[in-house]
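Hi V.,

You were right to ask for the full record rather than a summary. Here it is.
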Amino acid sequence: MQARELRVPDAFEFTPRSFPDSRGVFVSPFQGEAFTKAVGNPLTVAQTNHSRSRKGSIRGLHFADVPPGQAKYVYCPQGALLDYVVDIRVGSPTFGAWDVVRLDPVDFRAVYVPEGVGHGFVALEEDTVISYLCSTGYNPSAEHGINPLDPDLALPWAPELEPLMSDKDTSAPTLAEAAAAGLLPLYSDCVARYEKLRAN
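Predicted structure:
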C-alpha cells in the first residue's frame, strides 16, 4: 500500500494494490500496518459509517471538538466522489489550506482525516457510496460544520453538477464566522492529541 501526505499536514491518501481476476477483484482498502507506519499511531475504530448519495450531493464540511475529535478513514466502494480535507486548525501554519482526492472503486484510494481537520465530499455519480472508519462515536453536541460553499475557501465542488445540500450544511457558518465564534479547533490542541495517540 502506498501512502502520501496531503497538502493539509497530518492528512494522508492511501492507495492499496488490487488483485483482479476472472471472478472480479480483491482489495484491502485499510491496512493497519501501513496506516501506522505513515501516520505514527494505529487507528482505533469506535464506529463505522456508510452513506449513499445522489449525484451532485455535497456532504460537509464537518469536524468535531478536540479533544477528543474524530479521525476518519474514508473510501468509496461504489460510484465516485471528490473528497476534501481543509485545515481549519486555528494557529496551524497551513490554516485554510485544502486538498482533494478522487475516490472510486477503480483505484480504491482512501483518505485519512485527522482530528481537527474539516472533511466533506461531493458525489460524482448516482448512488455513490462512502464508507468511514471513525476513531470515536457520534457525539452530536461536539459536531460542527462550515458552509462548503464559503466563497473565501472557493472549493471546486464539481461545478458542472447542481449541488444538493442539507439545510444544516447550507446554513452552516463560513470559516471566518466559525473562527470568530470560537468553534474551530486549536492547532495546539490537535498536536497534543496526535502526540498522545502516538505515545500510547
